[in-house]
Amino acid sequence: MTRTHEHARGHEHAHGHPHDHGHHHHGGLRGALREIFVPHTHDAADSVDDALEASGRGIRAVKVSLVVLLATTVLQLAVVAISGSVALLADTVHNFADALTAVPLWIAFVLGRRAATRRQPYGYGRAEDLAGLFIVLVVALSAVVAAWQSIDRLISPQPIDHLGWVIAAGVIGFAGNEAVAIYRIRVGRRIGSAALVADGVHARTDGFTSLAVVLGGIGVLLGFPLADPVVGLAISAAILVLLWGTVHSVGARLMDRIDPDLVDRAEHALGHVGGITAVREVRLRWVGHRLQGDAVIEASDRSLAEAERLLAEADRELRAHLPNLEEMRVRAVPTAESSA
Fold first, then answer.
1. Which residues pair with 278 in a beta bridge?
2. What is the phi-psi region of residue 84: left when phi exceeds 0, alpha when psi lies from -120 to 50, beta otherwise?
């Protein structure tokens, strides 16, 4: 059965320009926390980057974040050596793991720039999604390591020295991780990379666990020596809870889940093209940070010249409405088929 095209509600009818597509956001405290720890990847991706420029931005983001996080880790490790703080050790291990996640993501962005081949006809964009899966595993592993260290210190308590340095190191960890998180998430949203956004959320959780180290240090100063390993356990639990948002985001990409708003955009774009009488089907999927898809449209004119014009205009409109679009196969069928 043929489904005729209707403009999505809320679209403006200015020809050739992207339209405003609002996203549903939860209000109040829940909405604020969700935006901090499970930020929307902005699948509508109002980006002007082409594929090479987008990959270049992604590579630049992982390079900068790798340097910043390694510097933060080295500073914290020095304080761990002189203080013996298990909470700070847990935070340092997690920060180091976060820095390492930049490496597979870097490799994925480089692979994603390679041209498709006969053996790899859809290119290498999926490497980015696999890197996102690796990030999830690293986050989970770091939470287990942090928990193990904390339990060991609860069983065999050890004194903590230089608490002032421990607190200072926690503040440094928070500042470094939050700076990296903001940068990764902003770039990831711009280029449409769920993996880079996930890595940004990973850095953000590290930042807040660094603040937890500060609380542990203050607790010890106030006369609660077990505050340090208890905070270490709390860090581990928080990481695992917050990990769900990242699992959901990366898993959605691997399962070819798409924001319906993108399909609306594609249908709306095709509706601008004169000669298209109906849009039968639109399918889209993310491959890394680029969109691929196909569509079936109905056209009243059967001439070859008109079909070529129509498909060329359809391609222009789709790219105007979906800047992250890499490839869209559009097939035109005669309108008469719908009434057959």
1. 298
2. left
Distances (CA, A) of 308 to 8, 95, 313, 335: 26, 54, 9, 16
- CB contact at 8 A, 297 and 332: yes
Q: Contact, 226 vs 154, CB < 8 A?
A: yes
Non-local CB neighbours of 308 within 8 Å, separated by 6+ positions: none
Is residue 146 within 8 Å of residue 90, measured between CB atoms? yes
**Closest by Cα among 237, 220, 54, 227 to 154:** 227
Q: How far apart are CA 62 and CA 107, in angstroms?
A: 10
Q: What is the C-alpha to C-alpha distance for residues 242 and 201, in angstroms, rounded to an integer?
A: 9
Write out the two tokens for 196: 């880079």
What one-letter code names the amino acid at 320? A
d(C-alpha 321, C-alpha 52), whole Å: 19
Query: H helices within 17-125, ranges in order?
Result: 28-37, 51-83, 86-100, 102-112
- Identify which of 40-49, 225-234, 254-263 has the greatest average pLDDT: 254-263
Strand arrangement of the beta sheet that strand 325-334 belongs to: 276-287, 290-299, 325-334
Closest CA to 331 of 282, 265, 286: 282
Four-CA torsion 112, 118, 119, 122, nearest 10 degrees:
40
Supply the DSSP symbol for 331.
E
Q: Could you give the CA distance from residue 321 to residue 89 in angstroms, rounded to a whole number?
A: 48
Cα–Cα distance list, 256 to 59, 261, 276, 280 (Å): 24, 15, 27, 20
Residues 28-55: tens digit of each pLDDT? 444 444 444 445 444 444 444 455 567 7
